[in-house]
Write a structure and sequence with these properties.
Blueprint lengths: L19 H18 L4 E6 L11 E6 L4 H14 L3 E4 L5 E3 L4 E7 L7 E4 L2 E5 L4 H10 L2 E2 L11 H7 L2 E2 L2 E2 L4 E7 L5 E5 L4 E3 L2 E3 L5 E8 L1 E2 L2 H18 L6 E4 L9 H7 L6 E2 L2 E3 L6 E4 L5 H19 L8 E3 L3
Parallel strand pairs: 2-5, 3-5, 4-21
Antiparallel strand pairs: 1-2, 6-7, 7-15, 8-16, 9-10, 11-12, 11-15, 13-14, 17-20, 18-19, 19-20
Bound molecules: flavin-adenine dinucleotide.
Protein backbone atom coordinates (compact mmCIF):
# COMPACT_ATOMS: atom_id res chain seq x y z
CA UNK A 1 0.00 0.00 0.00
CA UNK A 2 1.12 3.51 -0.83
CA UNK A 3 2.41 5.59 2.03
CA UNK A 4 -0.31 8.11 2.88
CA UNK A 5 0.61 11.73 3.43
CA UNK A 6 1.10 13.27 6.85
CA UNK A 7 -1.80 15.30 8.06
CA UNK A 8 -0.99 18.94 8.59
CA UNK A 9 -0.75 19.71 12.28
CA UNK A 10 -2.66 22.36 14.19
CA UNK A 11 -2.82 25.85 12.78
CA UNK A 12 -4.78 24.91 9.68
CA UNK A 13 -4.00 25.01 5.99
CA UNK A 14 -2.29 22.41 3.88
CA UNK A 15 1.13 23.94 3.94
CA UNK A 16 2.55 26.90 2.14
CA UNK A 17 3.37 26.42 -1.55
CA UNK A 18 1.01 23.50 -2.17
CA UNK A 19 -1.48 24.08 -4.88
CA UNK A 20 -5.15 23.39 -4.40
CA UNK A 21 -5.17 20.22 -6.47
CA UNK A 22 -2.48 18.53 -4.41
CA UNK A 23 -4.19 19.67 -1.22
CA UNK A 24 -7.44 18.07 -2.35
CA UNK A 25 -5.53 14.93 -3.35
CA UNK A 26 -3.90 14.73 0.07
CA UNK A 27 -7.23 15.15 1.77
CA UNK A 28 -8.74 12.33 -0.29
CA UNK A 29 -5.82 9.99 0.54
CA UNK A 30 -6.05 10.79 4.18
CA UNK A 31 -9.77 10.10 4.22
CA UNK A 32 -9.40 6.76 2.46
CA UNK A 33 -6.63 5.89 4.85
CA UNK A 34 -8.86 6.43 7.89
CA UNK A 35 -11.63 4.37 6.35
CA UNK A 36 -9.24 1.48 5.56
CA UNK A 37 -7.98 1.37 9.10
CA UNK A 38 -11.04 0.15 11.00
CA UNK A 39 -14.34 -1.63 10.52
CA UNK A 40 -16.08 0.81 12.86
CA UNK A 41 -17.79 3.88 11.37
CA UNK A 42 -15.68 6.73 9.98
CA UNK A 43 -17.29 10.08 9.17
CA UNK A 44 -15.78 13.06 7.42
CA UNK A 45 -16.47 16.72 8.09
CA UNK A 46 -18.87 15.62 10.82
CA UNK A 47 -20.64 18.69 12.27
CA UNK A 48 -19.69 18.67 15.94
CA UNK A 49 -22.91 20.45 16.83
CA UNK A 50 -24.48 17.00 16.39
CA UNK A 51 -22.06 15.45 18.84
CA UNK A 52 -22.13 18.03 21.63
CA UNK A 53 -24.93 18.67 24.10
CA UNK A 54 -24.85 22.46 23.62
CA UNK A 55 -25.17 21.91 19.86
CA UNK A 56 -22.50 24.28 18.63
CA UNK A 57 -19.25 23.63 16.80
CA UNK A 58 -17.81 23.24 13.33
CA UNK A 59 -16.83 20.00 11.58
CA UNK A 60 -14.48 17.32 12.81
CA UNK A 61 -12.24 16.53 9.83
CA UNK A 62 -12.53 12.88 10.61
CA UNK A 63 -14.65 11.21 13.29
CA UNK A 64 -13.81 7.57 14.01
CA UNK A 65 -15.77 5.04 16.04
CA UNK A 66 -13.44 2.09 16.71
CA UNK A 67 -15.44 -1.01 17.53
CA UNK A 68 -13.13 -2.36 20.21
CA UNK A 69 -9.81 -1.86 21.99
CA UNK A 70 -7.90 -3.54 19.15
CA UNK A 71 -9.23 -1.04 16.63
CA UNK A 72 -8.61 1.83 19.02
CA UNK A 73 -5.00 0.71 19.37
CA UNK A 74 -4.64 0.65 15.57
CA UNK A 75 -6.00 4.16 15.34
CA UNK A 76 -3.73 5.49 18.09
CA UNK A 77 -0.60 3.85 16.73
CA UNK A 78 -1.32 4.99 13.20
CA UNK A 79 -2.04 8.54 14.30
CA UNK A 80 1.15 8.53 16.36
CA UNK A 81 3.25 7.38 13.41
CA UNK A 82 1.72 9.95 11.09
CA UNK A 83 1.62 12.70 13.71
CA UNK A 84 -2.11 13.14 13.30
CA UNK A 85 -3.61 15.00 16.25
CA UNK A 86 -6.19 12.92 18.13
CA UNK A 87 -9.01 14.16 20.32
CA UNK A 88 -11.02 11.70 22.41
CA UNK A 89 -14.70 12.52 22.47
CA UNK A 90 -17.13 11.23 25.08
CA UNK A 91 -20.72 12.39 24.70
CA UNK A 92 -19.59 15.97 24.23
CA UNK A 93 -21.55 17.18 27.26
CA UNK A 94 -18.75 19.27 28.70
CA UNK A 95 -17.38 20.66 25.48
CA UNK A 96 -17.50 23.82 23.43
CA UNK A 97 -16.13 23.06 19.97
CA UNK A 98 -15.14 26.22 18.11
CA UNK A 99 -16.93 27.09 14.86
CA UNK A 100 -13.88 26.25 12.72
CA UNK A 101 -14.07 22.65 13.88
CA UNK A 102 -11.36 20.16 14.80
CA UNK A 103 -8.37 19.23 12.67
CA UNK A 104 -7.15 15.67 12.78
CA UNK A 105 -8.94 12.64 14.19
CA UNK A 106 -11.75 12.79 16.70
CA UNK A 107 -12.20 9.37 18.26
CA UNK A 108 -15.40 8.28 19.94
CA UNK A 109 -15.64 5.14 22.06
CA UNK A 110 -19.41 5.33 22.31
CA UNK A 111 -20.31 2.80 19.64
CA UNK A 112 -18.13 -0.17 20.41
CA UNK A 113 -16.79 0.16 23.91
CA UNK A 114 -19.69 0.37 26.33
CA UNK A 115 -20.03 -2.95 28.14
CA UNK A 116 -20.74 -3.13 31.86
CA UNK A 117 -20.22 -6.12 34.11
CA UNK A 118 -20.47 -7.02 37.76
CA UNK A 119 -17.76 -8.56 39.88
CA UNK A 120 -19.09 -8.89 43.44
CA UNK A 121 -19.52 -5.37 44.78
CA UNK A 122 -17.44 -3.92 41.95
CA UNK A 123 -18.94 -2.75 38.65
CA UNK A 124 -16.70 -2.54 35.63
CA UNK A 125 -17.73 -0.25 32.78
CA UNK A 126 -16.07 0.54 29.47
CA UNK A 127 -15.33 4.18 28.72
CA UNK A 128 -18.04 4.64 26.08
CA UNK A 129 -20.83 3.49 28.39
CA UNK A 130 -23.21 6.30 29.34
CA UNK A 131 -22.91 7.14 33.04
CA UNK A 132 -26.70 7.03 33.19
CA UNK A 133 -26.69 3.40 32.03
CA UNK A 134 -24.08 2.48 34.62
CA UNK A 135 -26.24 3.96 37.39
CA UNK A 136 -29.29 2.07 36.10
CA UNK A 137 -27.29 -1.16 36.08
CA UNK A 138 -26.17 -0.55 39.67
CA UNK A 139 -29.81 -0.09 40.72
CA UNK A 140 -30.82 -3.36 39.01
CA UNK A 141 -28.02 -5.19 40.79
CA UNK A 142 -28.82 -3.65 44.18
CA UNK A 143 -25.48 -1.87 44.46
CA UNK A 144 -25.37 1.53 46.16
CA UNK A 145 -22.94 4.41 45.64
CA UNK A 146 -23.60 5.77 42.17
CA UNK A 147 -27.00 7.41 42.80
CA UNK A 148 -25.78 11.06 42.83
CA UNK A 149 -24.44 10.63 39.29
CA UNK A 150 -27.82 9.85 37.79
CA UNK A 151 -28.61 12.61 35.31
CA UNK A 152 -25.02 13.49 34.40
CA UNK A 153 -25.33 13.05 30.65
CA UNK A 154 -21.75 11.99 29.80
CA UNK A 155 -19.89 8.71 29.43
CA UNK A 156 -17.86 6.76 31.96
CA UNK A 157 -14.64 7.90 30.19
CA UNK A 158 -15.69 11.55 30.12
CA UNK A 159 -16.92 11.31 33.70
CA UNK A 160 -13.59 9.96 34.92
CA UNK A 161 -11.56 12.42 32.83
CA UNK A 162 -13.62 15.24 34.39
CA UNK A 163 -13.93 13.67 37.84
CA UNK A 164 -17.63 14.35 37.46
CA UNK A 165 -19.53 15.06 40.62
CA UNK A 166 -22.88 16.02 42.01
CA UNK A 167 -24.47 16.65 45.38
CA UNK A 168 -21.16 16.45 47.24
CA UNK A 169 -19.88 13.19 45.68
CA UNK A 170 -17.29 12.81 42.92
CA UNK A 171 -16.35 9.76 40.86
CA UNK A 172 -13.03 9.69 42.72
CA UNK A 173 -15.01 8.65 45.84
CA UNK A 174 -16.22 5.40 44.27
CA UNK A 175 -13.41 4.51 41.86
CA UNK A 176 -11.53 1.29 42.44
CA UNK A 177 -9.18 1.34 39.43
CA UNK A 178 -8.90 2.62 35.88
CA UNK A 179 -7.54 0.93 32.75
CA UNK A 180 -5.70 3.25 30.39
CA UNK A 181 -4.13 3.18 26.94
CA UNK A 182 -0.84 5.02 26.56
CA UNK A 183 0.04 6.99 23.44
CA UNK A 184 1.94 3.98 22.02
CA UNK A 185 -1.05 1.63 22.49
CA UNK A 186 0.25 -0.09 25.64
CA UNK A 187 -2.46 -0.83 28.19
CA UNK A 188 -1.91 -0.19 31.89
CA UNK A 189 -4.07 -0.46 34.98
CA UNK A 190 -3.95 2.07 37.81
CA UNK A 191 -5.48 1.43 41.24
CA UNK A 192 -7.22 4.30 43.00
CA UNK A 193 -4.14 4.94 45.15
CA UNK A 194 -2.14 5.78 42.01
CA UNK A 195 -4.70 8.13 40.46
CA UNK A 196 -4.67 11.86 41.11
CA UNK A 197 -8.10 13.42 40.89
CA UNK A 198 -8.60 17.15 41.36
CA UNK A 199 -11.72 19.30 41.07
CA UNK A 200 -13.28 18.28 37.73
CA UNK A 201 -10.10 16.64 36.48
CA UNK A 202 -8.15 13.40 36.49
CA UNK A 203 -4.47 14.17 36.10
CA UNK A 204 -3.13 11.97 33.29
CA UNK A 205 -0.20 12.25 30.88
CA UNK A 206 -1.38 13.95 27.68
CA UNK A 207 -2.77 11.52 25.08
CA UNK A 208 -3.56 8.73 27.53
CA UNK A 209 -7.02 7.28 27.01
CA UNK A 210 -9.37 5.90 29.63
CA UNK A 211 -10.56 2.46 28.52
CA UNK A 212 -12.58 1.41 31.52
CA UNK A 213 -13.28 2.10 35.15
CA UNK A 214 -14.02 -0.23 38.06
CA UNK A 215 -16.29 1.20 40.74
CA UNK A 216 -16.38 -0.08 44.32
CA UNK A 217 -19.99 -0.07 45.52
CA UNK A 218 -21.95 -1.49 48.48
CA UNK A 219 -24.80 -3.97 48.55
CA UNK A 220 -28.06 -2.27 49.42
CA UNK A 221 -31.84 -2.58 49.14
CA UNK A 222 -32.93 -1.98 45.58
CA UNK A 223 -36.01 0.09 46.52
CA UNK A 224 -33.94 2.41 48.70
CA UNK A 225 -31.30 2.88 46.02
CA UNK A 226 -34.02 3.65 43.49
CA UNK A 227 -35.62 6.17 45.86
CA UNK A 228 -32.31 8.02 46.18
CA UNK A 229 -31.87 8.02 42.39
CA UNK A 230 -35.35 9.50 42.01
CA UNK A 231 -34.78 12.22 44.55
CA UNK A 232 -31.46 13.29 42.95
CA UNK A 233 -33.17 13.29 39.58
CA UNK A 234 -36.01 15.48 40.93
CA UNK A 235 -33.53 17.98 42.39
CA UNK A 236 -31.81 18.18 39.02
CA UNK A 237 -35.07 18.82 37.19
CA UNK A 238 -35.99 21.56 39.68
CA UNK A 239 -32.67 23.41 39.47
CA UNK A 240 -31.30 22.92 35.93
CA UNK A 241 -32.56 24.24 32.57
CA UNK A 242 -32.86 20.78 31.03
CA UNK A 243 -35.23 21.88 28.26
CA UNK A 244 -32.45 23.74 26.38
CA UNK A 245 -29.13 22.52 24.98
CA UNK A 246 -26.21 23.34 27.31
CA UNK A 247 -22.85 22.02 28.44
CA UNK A 248 -23.81 21.88 32.12
CA UNK A 249 -22.01 24.17 34.56
CA UNK A 250 -19.75 26.49 32.62
CA UNK A 251 -17.52 27.58 35.50
CA UNK A 252 -16.01 25.75 38.46
CA UNK A 253 -17.21 26.86 41.87
CA UNK A 254 -14.54 29.21 43.23
CA UNK A 255 -13.38 29.10 46.87
CA UNK A 256 -15.76 31.99 47.57
CA UNK A 257 -18.84 29.82 46.90
CA UNK A 258 -21.12 28.85 44.04
CA UNK A 259 -20.22 30.32 40.64
CA UNK A 260 -23.95 30.53 39.82
CA UNK A 261 -24.61 32.71 42.86
CA UNK A 262 -21.94 35.25 41.85
CA UNK A 263 -23.15 35.33 38.25
CA UNK A 264 -26.72 35.82 39.46
CA UNK A 265 -25.68 38.61 41.86
CA UNK A 266 -23.89 40.35 38.99
CA UNK A 267 -27.30 40.55 37.31
CA UNK A 268 -26.44 38.35 34.37
CA UNK A 269 -29.34 35.86 34.41
CA UNK A 270 -31.07 36.12 31.05
CA UNK A 271 -28.17 38.09 29.49
CA UNK A 272 -27.73 37.17 25.81
CA UNK A 273 -25.12 37.25 23.08
CA UNK A 274 -27.05 36.36 19.96
CA UNK A 275 -28.67 32.98 20.57
CA UNK A 276 -26.54 32.13 23.62
CA UNK A 277 -28.05 33.08 26.97
CA UNK A 278 -27.17 32.85 30.66
CA UNK A 279 -29.97 30.62 31.93
CA UNK A 280 -32.50 32.39 34.10
CA UNK A 281 -33.04 29.15 36.01
CA UNK A 282 -29.39 28.39 36.83
CA UNK A 283 -26.91 31.24 36.24
CA UNK A 284 -23.93 28.89 35.79
CA UNK A 285 -25.55 27.37 32.69
CA UNK A 286 -25.31 28.94 29.25
CA UNK A 287 -28.11 27.71 27.05
CA UNK A 288 -28.45 27.61 23.28
CA UNK A 289 -31.76 29.23 22.34
CA UNK A 290 -31.69 27.44 19.00
CA UNK A 291 -29.09 28.67 16.56
CA UNK A 292 -26.22 29.81 18.75
CA UNK A 293 -22.68 29.66 17.39
CA UNK A 294 -19.64 28.67 19.43
CA UNK A 295 -18.43 32.23 19.02
CA UNK A 296 -21.54 33.59 20.71
CA UNK A 297 -21.16 31.12 23.57
CA UNK A 298 -17.47 31.98 23.99
CA UNK A 299 -18.12 35.73 23.86
CA UNK A 300 -20.80 35.33 26.49
CA UNK A 301 -18.44 33.29 28.68
CA UNK A 302 -15.81 36.03 28.40
CA UNK A 303 -18.39 38.68 29.25
CA UNK A 304 -19.51 36.76 32.36
CA UNK A 305 -15.89 36.32 33.46
CA UNK A 306 -15.22 40.04 33.00
CA UNK A 307 -18.36 41.29 34.74
CA UNK A 308 -18.00 38.93 37.73
CA UNK A 309 -14.39 40.01 38.13
CA UNK A 310 -15.24 43.71 37.87
CA UNK A 311 -18.23 43.53 40.23
CA UNK A 312 -17.12 40.90 42.73
CA UNK A 313 -13.34 40.62 42.31
CA UNK A 314 -13.72 36.88 41.64
CA UNK A 315 -11.86 35.12 38.81
CA UNK A 316 -14.03 32.36 37.43
CA UNK A 317 -12.27 29.30 36.10
CA UNK A 318 -13.82 27.35 33.22
CA UNK A 319 -15.22 23.88 33.84
CA UNK A 320 -16.21 23.33 30.20
CA UNK A 321 -13.38 22.43 27.87
CA UNK A 322 -12.99 24.52 24.74
CA UNK A 323 -11.51 22.70 21.74
CA UNK A 324 -11.02 23.20 18.03
CA UNK A 325 -9.33 25.64 15.70
CA UNK A 326 -9.16 29.22 16.95
C1 LIG B 1 -27.47 19.12 31.51
C2 LIG B 1 -26.09 18.81 32.01
C3 LIG B 1 -25.89 18.51 33.34
C4 LIG B 1 -24.61 18.22 33.82
N1 LIG B 1 -24.44 17.95 35.14
C5 LIG B 1 -23.21 17.67 35.60
C6 LIG B 1 -23.01 17.39 36.99
O1 LIG B 1 -23.93 17.34 37.78
N2 LIG B 1 -21.74 17.12 37.39
C7 LIG B 1 -20.68 17.13 36.56
O2 LIG B 1 -19.55 16.88 36.98
N3 LIG B 1 -20.85 17.41 35.23
C8 LIG B 1 -22.07 17.67 34.75
N4 LIG B 1 -22.24 17.95 33.42
C9 LIG B 1 -21.06 18.01 32.53
C10 LIG B 1 -20.71 16.70 31.82
O3 LIG B 1 -21.86 15.89 31.64
C11 LIG B 1 -19.66 15.90 32.58
O4 LIG B 1 -18.46 16.62 32.71
C12 LIG B 1 -19.37 14.56 31.90
O5 LIG B 1 -18.60 13.79 32.75
C13 LIG B 1 -18.64 14.72 30.55
O6 LIG B 1 -18.63 13.46 29.92
P1 LIG B 1 -18.63 13.31 28.35
O7 LIG B 1 -18.59 11.87 28.02
O8 LIG B 1 -19.70 14.09 27.75
O9 LIG B 1 -17.21 13.97 28.01
P2 LIG B 1 -16.86 15.01 26.85
O10 LIG B 1 -17.60 16.27 27.10
O11 LIG B 1 -17.02 14.38 25.52
O12 LIG B 1 -15.32 15.23 27.12
C14 LIG B 1 -14.89 15.91 28.28
C15 LIG B 1 -13.36 15.72 28.42
O13 LIG B 1 -13.10 14.35 28.73
C16 LIG B 1 -12.16 13.81 27.80
N5 LIG B 1 -12.50 12.40 27.60
C17 LIG B 1 -13.69 11.87 27.28
N6 LIG B 1 -13.60 10.52 27.21
C18 LIG B 1 -12.31 10.21 27.48
C19 LIG B 1 -11.58 8.99 27.54
N7 LIG B 1 -12.16 7.80 27.31
N8 LIG B 1 -10.27 9.05 27.85
C20 LIG B 1 -9.66 10.23 28.07
N9 LIG B 1 -10.29 11.42 28.03
C21 LIG B 1 -11.60 11.40 27.73
C22 LIG B 1 -12.37 14.63 26.52
O14 LIG B 1 -11.23 14.57 25.70
C23 LIG B 1 -12.62 16.01 27.12
O15 LIG B 1 -11.40 16.63 27.44
C24 LIG B 1 -23.51 18.24 32.93
C25 LIG B 1 -23.72 18.52 31.57
C26 LIG B 1 -24.99 18.80 31.11
C27 LIG B 1 -25.21 19.08 29.65
Amino acid sequence: MRNPPTLPLKGGGWGRGRNLRSAIGMMRDYKEEARDLIEGRVLFDAPMKRYTSIKVGGPAECLLFPKDVKELRKVIRHAGRKRIPVFILGKGTNLIVRDRGIHGWVVSLTQGMKKVKMDGEVLEAEAGCPLQQLVQFSVQKGLAGLEPFFGIPGTVGGGLAMNAGAWGTELKDVIHSVTLMKEDGEIVKRPQSRLRFTYRNLVLPPSWIILKGRFRLKEGRREEILERVKSFSEMRKRTQPLDYPSAGSVFKNPEEGQAGKWIDETGLKGFRMGQAMVSDRHANFIINLGKATAEEVLRLMEWVERRVYEEKGISLEREVRVVGEA
